[in-house]
Each structure stands twice: as structure tokens, then as C-alpha cells.
């Protein structure tokens, strides 16, 4: 990535994060409290170096969205987020005209007796002043001095039609507005796409990206995440929490808990002034880690006492 041309380039180069290698990327995101293995760090380094979109797939709550936030912080740039949903169309993602403002302008001009203003009115109402910029267009416009980070979150929730529309944007980083012409990014934004795999994403989109499956962390990595994100938690309690969560993820839940739930649970236990797991504390706080009643019933039926006893074992027990 080239430094910003808005001034202060030398200062940014000397004081900014080192992203010159995969190892440097791993250290830089670690300094921002994001724990990443070398595979993730290498993929992120290549996405930045090759200026290719990064496609992150994995279960909900494993840190995909958080990585985009950390990346924007590292690059000292704006994070522009497009939250996908069923029925999302190009207007909602790209741009819309401010119809109410356009109509008001037309009505004001109608009071003018000069009938030769029709073409001028048309030019006026289809100008930038009346354009509502949605995330995709905004990412192109905001990347003039330095690339913005464009987060296309949960692409699997959108329709296949929108996915096909996205192909052109990710290929050329330009859009055509019929009334205004073609708008192309001065610099390609840094694009991060995430998917919880509620449906398969077409190969055509994946081919344009570098792909990475983000899995649940290992026991050691999750302990490091918890103690980093919730520094007030005792290491003993952090280990117990992570052993319990490792067991929970082997169960047949409708929605298995992710790292986000682990952190919520750790904070809840600290707020309740717990320094060790016990069955009563687990039952009282199950709402932090499980979000469906059927899953709560299942974990109670399978024996919370046994899971807590295993979590209390030390050293680490393979689960």
C-alpha cells in the first residue's frame, strides 16, 4: 500500500505499524489485542500486498468481523461496513437518489416562469448534492487519499442476485451511474468479506478473493484471547472457562458458542465475582453462552456437573 498523499507520509511511515511481512502483520495485530496464527497472518499479508479481497468463512463469533475492525485501526483508515441481509439490493448497497429533495427542487423551480430551465433542473437534481452514498459507493469515494476498509459482512445472508452484482464491483472497483457517468476508485479499498456458511458462496466470487477458514481456537489460543481481552480474569478461571467451552463445542447444539460468547461469559463471571466455575454459577449464566432454549435443555440433560468437573481438572485435559 502506498502512503497517504495528503501530507505527513514520512511521519506515518516511521510511526505506523510494520506490515512488511507475515510475521510483522502477526505482531501488529497482536499489539491490537487480536490473536492470530501464522496462517491467518500470512493470508492477511498477502491480501494487502496483492490488493485482493479477503474472504473469511467460519462459524459465527470466531472473530471474522473483529479482524476487519483491527485492520482498519492498523491502517489508520475508515471502516465502511455493509451488513448483508435477505433482500439486499444494489440500491441499498450502492447509491440512491434523494427523491424527496429532488421533488422539492423541482417544485421550487416550477415557480420560475422561465421555461428554458428544464435541462438545467435535470442536471441539478442528478448531481452529487442529491446522491445518497451507500457503503459500496462510499468505499470507492473515500479511498482517494488512502484505501478504506470495506467490510461486506455475512455475505451468505444476501441473495444470489446480489452476490452476482458484487462480482463486477470486486473486479474493477468502479460503478456507472447513468446520470453521472463512471466512478472509479483512485485506490482500491481493502475488502474483507465474511460468511457464516448458512449457504454456499459461488466459486466465481471466491475466485476473486484470498480464502481463509476461521476455526474455533485451540485451548491455548482461547486462553490467550480471554486473558488479553478480559485482563482482570484470573488465569485459573480463564482456563476453566475455555475447557468448558471446548466441551460445549463438541455437543450437538443448534448454535455452538463462539469466542464472542466466551468473552461475554468471562466478563459476566467477573461481574459476579466468581473466581472458579461451579455448577450453580454455570446454570445462572448459561444465557451468556447459549442463545436457544433447546440448547440450554440439552446441556442440562447431558450433565453440567460432569462438564464443570472436567473443566476444573489441571493440567489441561484433552476434550
Account of the protein in words:
- The protein is an alpha/beta fold and 319 residues long.
- It has 3 domains: 9-89 and 135-214, Rossmann fold, CATH 3.40.50.300; 96-125, no CATH class; 219-312.
- The protein is 48% helix and 13% strand.
- The strands form 3 sheets. The protein has a 5-stranded parallel sheet with strand order 2-5-8-1-9, with helices on both faces. A two-stranded antiparallel sheet has the order 3-4.
- Strand 6 (174-177) and strand 7 form a beta hairpin.
- Helix 11 (219-229) crosses helix 12 (235-248), helix 11 crosses helix 13 (259-271) and helix 12 crosses helix 16.
- The longest helix is centred in the C-terminal third of the chain and has 14 residues, at 235-248.
- It is elongated, with a radius of gyration of 25 Å.
- The two termini are 43 Å apart.
- What is the end-to-end distance? 43 Å
Shape summary: elongated
Characterize the main sheet: 5 strands, parallel
Backbone structural class: alpha/beta
Supply Rg. 25 Å
Residue-averaged pLDDT? 87
Instruction: Note the total helix count.
Output: 16
Quickly give the CATH architecture of the largest domain. Answer: 3-Layer(aba) Sandwich
The level 1 CATH classification of the largest domain is: Alpha Beta
Q: How many strand elements?
A: 9
Strands in their spatial order, largest beta sheet: 2-5-8-1-9
Amino acid at each position: 500500500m502506498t502512503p497517504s498523499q495528503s501530507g505527513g507520509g514520512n511521519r506515518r511511515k516511521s510511526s505506523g505499524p510494520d506490515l512488511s511481512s507475515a510475521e510483522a502483520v502477526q505482531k501488529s495485530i497482536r499489539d491490537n489485542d487480536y490473536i492470530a496464527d501464522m496462517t491467518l497472518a500470512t493470508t492477511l499479508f498477502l491480501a494487502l500486498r496483492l490488493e485482493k479481497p479477503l474472504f473469511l468463512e467460519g462459524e459465527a463469533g470466531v472473530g471474522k468481523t473483529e479482524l476487519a475492525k483491527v485492520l482498519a485501526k492498523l491502517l489508520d483508515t475508515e471502516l465502511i461496513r455493509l451488513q448483508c441481509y435477505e433482500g439486499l439490493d444494489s440500491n441499498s448497497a450502492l447509491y440512491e437518489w434523494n427523491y424527496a429533495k429532488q421533488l422539492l427542487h423541482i417544485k421550487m423551480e416550477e415557480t420560475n416562469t422561465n421555461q428554458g430551465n428544464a435541462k438545467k433542473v435535470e442536471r441539478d437534481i442528478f448531481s452529487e448534492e442529491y446522491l445518497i452514498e451507500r457503503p459500496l459507493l462510499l468505499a470507492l469515494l473515500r479511498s482517494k487519499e488512502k484505501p478504506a476498509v470495506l467490510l461486506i459482512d455475512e455475505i451468505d445472508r444476501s441473495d444470489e442476485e446480489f452476490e452476482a452484482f458484487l462480482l463486477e464491483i470486486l473486479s474493477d472497483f468502479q460503478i456507472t451511474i447513468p446520470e453521472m457517468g463512471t466512478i472509479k476508485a483512485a485506490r482500491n479499498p481493502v475488502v474483507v468479506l465474511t460468511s457464516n456458511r448458512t449457504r454456499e458462496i459461488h466459486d466465481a466470487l471466491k475466485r476473486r478473493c484470498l480464502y481463509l477458514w476461521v476455526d474455533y481456537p485451540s485451548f491455548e489460543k482461547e486462553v490467550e484471547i480471554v486473558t488479553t481481552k478480559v485482563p482482570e480474569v484470573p488465569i485459573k478461571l480463564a482456563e476453566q472457562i475455555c475447557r468448558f467451552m471446548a466441551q460445549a463445542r463438541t455437543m450437538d447444539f443448534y448454535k455452538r458458542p463462539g469466542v464472542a460468547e466466551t468473552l461475554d461469559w468471562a466478563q459476566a463471571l467477573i461481574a459476579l465475582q466468581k473466581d472458579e466455575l461451579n455448577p450453580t454459577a454455570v446454570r445462572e449464566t448459561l444465557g451468556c453462552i447459549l442463545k436457544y432454549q433447546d440448547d440450554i435443555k440439552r446441556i442440562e440433560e447431558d450433565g453440567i456437573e460432569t462438564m464443570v468437573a472436567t473443566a476444573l481438572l489441571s493440567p489441561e485435559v484433552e476434550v
